[in-house]
Amino acid sequence: MSENLKPLAKCCDQYSHELANLESVSIDRIVEIADEVGFFLVKGKYLKNNKPDSMGIKVNQIRRFLDAVRRIEARLKESKSKESKSKEITEEIKGSIILLRPKLAYAAGREEKIKPLMNVLDPAIKSGAESKENFEKLLRLIEGIIAYHRYHGGSN
């Protein structure tokens, strides 16, 4: 990836539009997006008080969110073994997925640097609540963002 970053708004809009329908996004594209977002979270710039500032998001900030997604994944696997191999998500688990949105919004409200990540993940969370396949793609997206964040030099 080149050091010339796409403008933040364009970047987030493009990804959020694509990720709003995870069903139609290939796993290859998920990996590409994760790479670009991971790179941006380490090397990107944003405006803070009208001055460019480094993103410098720490991996622990993203990992906390991944931990919440993993807890939902465990519940989903548990419900999968009890029920049929349906692609549907129970209402209880769907609610837990949707409640990730305010958690992410809270983190973004506390730390302005998280807002670009929220803008990318929020539509993916909505889509991830629609089916088990979409949830799996959401999980892989977040894992990929963390992996590429580390690869591009992100710190703990």
UniProtKB/TrEMBL annotation:
CDD domains: Csm2_III-A (cd09647)
Alphabetical list of NCBIfam families matching this protein: cas_TM1810_Csm2 (TIGR01870)
Keyword RNA-binding among UniProt keywords: yes
GO biological process terms on file: defense response to virus
Keywords associated with the record: Antiviral defense, RNA-binding
InterPro entries registered for this protein in UniProt: CRISPR-assoc_prot_Csm2_III-A
Family: Belongs to the CRISPR-associated Csm2 family.
Segments passing through the bilayer: none
Role of this protein: This subunit may be involved in monitoring complementarity of crRNA and target RNA.
Keyword tRNA-binding: no
Protein name in the entry: CRISPR system Cms protein Csm2
Gene Ontology molecular function: any one: RNA binding
Taxonomic placement: unclassified sequences, metagenomes, ecological metagenomes
